[in-house]
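Handoff note, outgoing to incoming analyst
You'll be picking up this chain. Sequence as last confirmed:
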Amino acid sequence: MADCAYPKTPGAAPNGSKSTKEEMLAGKAALDKYQAEVNEYLACLDKESGESVAQAGDNADQVKQIKLLTVKRHNAAIEELTMRADEFNQQVRAFNKAKK
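Most recent structure output, in case you need it:
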């Protein structure tokens, strides 16, 4: 299980209290692109896991290890995406507050 390429995380979110609207929109576009790449990665993991489980056949220990590794990789990707989204949302709130 190594064919699925983990997506490159976007850079830090723009500083909402100092950024322009255009910079914030660029940050949103980068986050949206990253989210799409994470979704592709997760679909690849599911496919790869299914193929590996099929190859493992009746080997219950190997199937268990494949599934465990897949869950760990899936959860790590979701946690990173959530962290990046939370960071961006925090900066959006700072942007909105600064523009009032």
